[in-house]
Amino acid sequence: MKTYTQSEFDEFPVIDGIRQCPTGNYTQIKRFGGRCSFGDGCSFGEWCSFGDGCSFGEWCSFGGRCSFGGRCSFGEGCSFGEWCSFGERCSFGEWCSFEKLAMEHRPYFIRINNIGSRQDGCIIYNAASGLHVRSGCWFGTESEFIARVKDTHGDSKYARQYLAAIELARITFGEGENE
Q: How many angstroms separate the CA atoms of 93 and 103, rounded?
């Protein structure tokens, strides 16, 4: 797979306002403007930043700490590294997965920041197999998370924050409610 430099990227043709980017390795490029179109099988490194309206083909792979602007769309089979974040109105094609979980429901996840003893965040996934939680380097099911929180924090304010995050996820994902 060809590795592209920033100068090569800048020379890709623009058709109808969209930069046409072939399949390749873009790990040397960290910033991409809006309205880029990437072919299948592209690879991106850490700290990538994409503007609004980018689209990606099947089997694209993104490293850690990638960020995507609003209205990005991703094709089937895309995978994302740790610390990826997505702007408003992002949409994902069928068969996308997070943390190797099958996602059959929308929305796929929520992120709650500045909670717990470390003032960190947690991501709660709405997976086909139920809620799953990523908190720091810990990952597990909803019940495993609740048990860990109670064991670690008892009934402290931190425990209440984490348990409130789970409750927010249940409400957000409509668990147990008639829609």
A: 11
How many residues would you count in the chain?
Answer: 179
In the β-sheet with 18-21, what is the strand arrangement from edge to edge?
A: 14-15, 18-21, 36-38, 55-56, 73-74, 91-92
Cβ(57)–Cβ(74) below 8 Å: no
pTM (2 d.p.): 0.54
From the number of C-beta atoms within 10 Å of its C-beta (0-12, 13-18, 19+), residue 84 rates as middle
d(C-alpha 95, C-alpha 143), whole Å: 25
pLDDT tens digits, one per residue of 85-136 = 666 666 666 556 666 776 666 677 888 989 988 888 888 988 888 999 988 8
51: CB partners within 8 A, 6+ apart: 32, 33, 34, 35, 36, 69
